[in-house]
Recover the amino acids of this structure.
């Protein structure tokens, strides 16, 4: 349980701020990607 508390405390302290500052959004959402990429790959 202490690990979870420390994880959330680190997030509150900004451990991921640098990642979010340079992140970009994906051109499609998950549902569209699954329909257009995953489904054809699985159907093969």
């Amino acid at each position: 349980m202490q690990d979870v508390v420390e994880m959330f405390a680190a997030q509150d302290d900004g451990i991921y701020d640098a990642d979010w500052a340079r992140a970009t959004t994906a051109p499609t959402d998950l549902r569209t990607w699954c329909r257009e990429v995953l489904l054809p790959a699985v159907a093969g």
Summary: The mean pLDDT is 93. The longest helix spans residues 30-43. Residues 2-43 form one domain.
